[in-house]
Amino acid sequence: MNYYEEMIGKIEELLKEKNYESAEKMISDELSVAYVPRDIEKKLYHLKEQIIKDTSPRKLSDEELEEYLFEGDPDHQLLSVNELNGKNLRQYIDLCQRYFESEGFANAKALLIDSLIRQEISHVFQFKRGEDIISFNPCTYAVIEDSEPFLAASAQISIDYMKEPSKLQLARQLLYKELIMALPDTYSVEQALVIEKNIVAYINNAFDSAE
């Protein structure tokens, strides 16, 4: 059992014991580190959402969703987005638009765009990034894991780390995070391959330094 599996297991055990305070502290400590694999990050936020559901008799109201998005800290913004992910986002076009115009948490915005893409929402949104305004229509995008840039760079990762599965998995996670965090901007295949080279160099250097 690796570190992440053991950590997730401990949190789940705490939840079974209804020790929500200790479980939430473990989750917050893990999310505060510089890098968390995407699949583990999703599990942690799912567990955090479970704590809210277990300690609350109902789901977040629309008013609470809005409050979390515009007045909450990054964790609450992500929780709000995670709950929105399970809803029909066609009914929340205005809320999404206002959030994209806000100074909200970049990770939460990226995940919300990903959900809009997955639901094939046809609407032109205006996304504020610094002083720039980016117009985008989610239905014209492919989900990251099916996009040509990701597939091309992922194939190169398979070649680079054919006999090193742990590095291969980490490289794909970093690639996915890089591409999703760029949304609503997208990379070309050529740009994604450059990103892949940089990720491989970063991982190799990190592993060499640890030896």
Would you give an account of this structure?
The chain has a two-stranded antiparallel sheet. 23% of the residues are buried. It has helices at residues 3-16, 20-31, 38-55, 62-71, 74-85, 93-100, 106-118, 148-160, 165-182, 189-210; strands at 125-129, 132-136. Helix 1 (3-16) runs antiparallel to helix 2 (20-31) and helix 4 runs antiparallel to helix 5. Strand 1 and strand 2 (132-136) form a beta hairpin. The chain has 211 residues and is mostly helical. The model has no long low-confidence stretch (mean pLDDT 90). The two termini are 22 Å apart. The chain is 66% helix and 5% strand. The chain has three domains: 3-55, no CATH class; 62-140, no CATH class; 144-210. The longest helix has 22 residues, at 189-210.
Task: Set down the secondary structure blueprint.
Blueprint: H1 3-16, H2 20-31, H3 38-55, H4 62-71, H5 74-85, H6 93-100, H7 106-118, E1 125-129, E2 132-136, H8 148-160, H9 165-182, H10 189-210
Antiparallel strand pairs: 1-2
Question: What would the average pLDDT be, to the nearest integer?
Answer: 90
The span between the termini is 22 Å
Q: Please outline the major beta sheet.
A: 2 strands, antiparallel
Supply Rg: 19 Å
Q: Would you report the number of β strands?
A: 2
Write out key terms for the chains shown:
3 domains, mainly alpha, 2 strands, 10 helices, two-stranded antiparallel sheet, 211 residues, 66% helix
Summarize the structure.
This protein is mainly alpha-helical and 211 residues long.
